[in-house]
Amino acid sequence: MKQTKLGHQARKRFGQNFLEDQSVIDRIIQSIHPTPGDSLVEIGPGLGALTERLLEETSGKLDVVELDRDLIPILRTKFFNHEGFSIHEGDALKFDFNTLVKDKKPLRIVGNLPYNISTPLIFHLLALGKQVQDMHFMLQKEVVQRLSAQANEKHYGRLGIMAQFQCTVDYLFDVPPTAFNPPPKVDSAIVRLTPRANPLFAIKNQQDLETLVRTAFSQRRKTLRNTLKPLLTAEDIQAIGIDPTARPETVTLEGFALLANRYTDLQEA
User: Fold this and answer.
1) If DSSP codes are grouped into helix, strand and coil, which group holds residue 237?
2) Model pTM?
3) Which of 151, 188, 152, 196 is nearest to 171 (CA)?
4) Each residue of 212-232: pLDDT tens digit?
5) pLDDT tens string 113-129
6) Residue 174 forms beta bridges with which residues?
7) Is the backbone peptide bond immediately before 182 cis, with ω within 30 degrees of 0?
8) Angle between helices 49-57 and 22-32 (to 10 degrees)
9) Closest CA to 177 of 138, 135, 120, 145
10) How many Cα atoms sit within 13 Å of 253 on the Cβ side?
């Protein structure tokens, strides 16, 4: 394990790759555009490279969630003079972010997310809904491609569909491995997720949508007629104007909304 300037060894089991490139940090700060009064939350601050800049921009108010207990004293020492700096030790996948909402002010969440937990963590955060103003994440480039993909594109699937139903997704820019210590073996990218004020399409039952999309992509090379057989017949699919012989990656967000609502109607009939 490679040792950092502060003597901490990046841990593979936590997926730690510490951002060190100041030009990349500058671009991230510009993209976030933090201001005093923001309810900012950083997930996985690491050694505090981005944390330091966030504190400067927000007049010293910041909540961070960190799993590695060896990093806690490093962060406390580095930012002891910021009274508004609060560390919450714990697993972000299990952390209740609602506890950080104060005065009904939605959270602005940022983080360099470990590649091994990025997808389940994004689903965990999407469940917060209107408690979040926006989210800016450093992710494996392929994950950002999946989040932002459209129908008929290679990376289109469950993650992007569920994210885009709930958020506008902006693929901001790529980050090379050389920006980190130790360098990861994959390229990274920055994405912005902004929860929608109003639904993209009317969904009668959110759980039914999640069930339908998950089922459709359980065997993505098969047709809708085959993958959705446990939920909808070919006739049900045809009835809403969608070809049952189509593959799931060709169905638009509106198409999935129609399929989900059809499934809900049949459940309630």
Assistant:
1) helix
2) 0.90
3) 188
4) 999 999 998 899 999 999 999
5) 887 889 999 999 999 98
6) 189
7) yes
8) 40
9) 138
10) 19
